[in-house]
Amino acid sequence: MENFYIEDWFPLIMFASLGILVFSGLPVAFVISGIGIAFGFLGMAYDVFSFIEFFNIVSRIWGGIAENMVMVAVPMFIYMGTMLEKSGVAEDLLECLNVLMRKVPGGLALSVTLMGTIMAATTGIIGASVVMMTLLALPVMLRRNYDPSLATGTIAASGTLGILIPPSIMLVLMSDLLSVSVGNLFLAAIIPGLLLASLYTIYIFVRCQMQPHLAPPLPDAEAVHGTEMVRMMVRSFIPPVFLIVLVLGSIFAGFATPTEAAGVGAVGATFLALVKGRLKWDVLKDVCERSALTGAMLFFLFAGATVFSYVFRSLGGDDLVIDLVDSAGLGAWGVLFLLMLIVFILGFFFDWVEITLIVLPIFAPVIAQLDFGDHLAVAGIGPTETQVLTWFAVMVAVNLQTSFLTPPFGFALFYLKGVAPKSITIQQIYKGIIPFVILQVIGLLLVMYFPELALWMPNTILE
Length: 463
Known about the structure:
This protein has 21 helices and no strands. The chain is mainly alpha-helical. Helix 1 packs antiparallel against helix 2 (28-45) and helix 7 packs across helix 19. It is a multi-pass membrane protein.
């Protein structure tokens, strides 16, 4: 019988401790860093960790997060999305889309989906997106006698597109964790993001065509025609769409870095609020406070995750994970399906930030060593480590969006329930999201089976 050494299992115990203590109610950033520091001292007691290594963590935080210029884009993207929400630009956009699509079956639901797709390009914070969409769209949909389950399902699914469609904060974070170009990930996520939005659109259109009572059309008395329609388009639709195209286009065309483009987006959102006469002191103050608090929360998590991942690796966590995967004998596809299942299950309990910071540093080395050469070669893609990691990152992003809608602990559902009218029950919300979860699983399987969906744009544009 082989000798059993408890220190060999410290990384596994460390991971299990995180899964338990995250429910303690303490701030997650402090839980992650606290576990890392505690196991660092425990490792010192067993001579598998030295005190001097704590100083390496400080240099990693300052040299990795604080000096990473791409990370500067995160608070500016948050500011951009918050300003568009608080200044009423998003509300005007929904009203315009509602009028434009009034003749289409399920026009208001389709407008919500289209708005979610457009607004996804302004913020990757799920809570902000879902709350905003619920406050703006749900009362209107209920007044139009929309089916509550269809209305809530559409809002929850559309509101979560923000973590996938660029410029997504999650993709910025992933690029740093995987050492992959952020522009590469932005390009890779566009087609999968639009694929999910298209699946939502087709489902809503077909279902409302077959069951018109679920989504009554806009009354003719509220229609807008001629000059008024043009004025509404110029005032409410073109400005935010132009801003988003400007931000993304400048990144993809190579005119600006993601950080510079985020600055343009923040200034542009402020300018739109000014032009609309809504840039009041109270609005500006609220936007700055919310952006600062959200940014501080994210960067505390970044620092805490750096502590956790360093100690985890120093205690042999990478080797332990690789050995466990090898001993399971699952093969490349078995490991990939297992990791996707783990991410999906973690999404029941954790926010995307914690999942990304915990899972990617641990499993990225495993994925990089797996052989998907034949699968990627069939798609005409060179099976390099960067290609595999980019494909994996996009699948994780699609998976995380799916997990946000899964009962009983889908965070998007709680955000929606928290601000929805009291007449909306949690059972109606659960019923409404089931079709969209199925559509998202289909989208994930399509990206998995057809890797060119994620890799065609970066390979074509960045050649």
